[in-house]
């Protein structure tokens, strides 16, 4: 019987729409499981990068980001995540190093989270 070699990735990157879609469709617990699957799919020196918006100030900011999504949030369809959510999921999944930085963009502050296996 031949052994099957599994493909392991060096880099997996997610951007804002995909991060929000995963969270909206699955909630926090399922999102943690998806981040764990990403961890498992990386090779031993792999890196996971996530670039997304994150709500701050008890989900009342940043203004530019929240105003664009306020109706969805009020109707219970919100898919905005709290700042630090993805970084926390990375740590729970087992990433040895997680670095986060907030970058100012034209559409508001965005979080860049980088997890190293």
Main β sheet profile: 4 strands, mixed
Predict the CATH topology. Answer: Rossmann fold
CATH class: Alpha Beta
Which structural class do you get from the secondary structure elements? alpha+beta
**Largest beta sheet: what is the strand line-up?**
1-2-4-3
CATH architecture: 3-Layer(aba) Sandwich
Q: Which oligomeric form is depicted? A: single chain
Q: What Rg, in angstroms, do the CA atoms define? A: 16 Å
Helical content (DSSP H or I, runs of 4+): 40-55%
Task: Report what the structure shows.
The protein is built from 3 helices and 4 strands. The chain has one domain (9-116): 3-Layer(aba) Sandwich (Rossmann fold). The protein is an alpha+beta fold and 117 residues long. The radius of gyration is 16 Å and the shape is globular.
């Amino acid at each position: 019987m031949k052994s099957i070699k599994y493909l392991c990735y060096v880099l997996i990157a997610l951007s804002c729409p995909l991060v929000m879609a995963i969270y909206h469709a699955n909630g926090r617990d399922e999102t943690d499981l998806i981040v764990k699957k990403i961890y498992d799919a990386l090779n031993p020196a792999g890196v996971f990068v996530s670039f997304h918006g994150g709500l701050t100030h008890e989900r009342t900011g940043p203004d530019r980001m929240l105003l664009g999504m306020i109706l969805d949030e009020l109707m219970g369809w919100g898919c905005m995540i709290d700042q630090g959510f993805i970084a926390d999921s990375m740590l729970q999944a087992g990433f040895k190093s997680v670095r986060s930085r907030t970058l100012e963009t034209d559409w508001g502050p965005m979080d860049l989270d980088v997890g190293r296996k």
